[in-house]
Specification:
The protein is mainly β. The chain is built from no helices and eleven strands. It is globular and about 40 Å long.
């Protein structure tokens, strides 16, 4: 079992920055890959970024590439999402998720554990 708890969401103006955190507990954090997803009202859950178990490899969706950075600190059992140059279309609930097969997949159904989500609202 893995428990995930996100934090760091909030209200920010367009062009601003936020850093999301996701604290993990349960199984050894460095043994699985992590991902961030988001879901806006009325839309399907969307892949944002993923990171390998060591942190050496990352992948981001085209919509956030160059603005968002995923990272992890295995000593702190935490994965981060640094979001810069935020846009109103980034408004969504953001979720972190764990993939026990340690695969950096973009498909939500391949992540076994999910956090409860944190709201990010970007005003224009």
């Amino acid at each position: 079992q893995v428990q995930l708890v996100e934090s760091g969401g909030g209200l920010v103006q367009a062009g601003g920055s936020l850093r999301l955190s996701c604290a993990a507990s349960g199984r050894t954090f460095s043994s699985y890959a992590m991902g961030w997803f988001r879901q806006a009202p009325g839309k399907e859950r969307e892949f944002v970024a993923s990171i390998s178990r060591s942190g050496g490899n990352t992948y981001a969706a085209d919509s956030v590439k160059g603005r968002f950075t995923i990272s992890r600190d295995n000593a702190k059992n935490t994965v981060y999402l640094q979001m810069n140059r935020l846009k109103p279309e980034d408004t969504a609930v953001y979720y972190c998720a764990a993939n026990m097969a340690s695969v950096m997949t973009t498909r939500a159904r391949e992540y076994e554990y999910w956090g409860q989500g944190t709201q990010v609202t970007v005003s224009s």
